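Table S4 entry, DUF1836 domain-containing protein.
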Amino acid sequence: MEKLNELLDGLYLDNHLSIKEMPDLDLYMDQVIQLFESKFASSKRNEEEKILTKTMINNYAKGKLLFPIKNKKYSKDHLILISLIYQLKGALSIKDIKTALEHVNEKITNDNFNVDDLYEIYLYLSEYNREQFREDAHECASEVNRQVSLMENSDSDYLEQLLLAISFVNMSNYYRRAAERIVDEIGKGKETT
């Protein structure tokens, strides 16, 4: 289990951009990129991976995942949405993210919606989910270990790693598919209004 703890610690699952870390001043694109790169550097799989690029931000704006930018500057609300997009893009398509965030963008633009409250709840739930994930990961690893111990094989370490990776991917697929269904429901709700 020690290796599993090291693996989970190395994922930096608690790495989120807090409201306090977001400046109240509007930022230029390069400043936004620098903020995200510095905050999420430890979460990168390798040095070549980019957290955020100009092309990504431009695509988010062109794809209407973000409400319009004013004077080439990004507000705190934009930073919150970019942070949510960063999290969502690991599992959902850009089309699904647009569908999921469309109503929030409209509320920010038309209703002066305070997206800070939504983001604070997201951060709270992220912490809750992180703790739940750690518990579930340990339970899964225990079951994998139990099942591999029933096999007669000298390569048990490899088999445990393989089966644990497959189990994690399997669970990830379940959650992704459930999230896609929820986004589909959001899209249906939008069509009827």
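The chain has seven helices and two strands.
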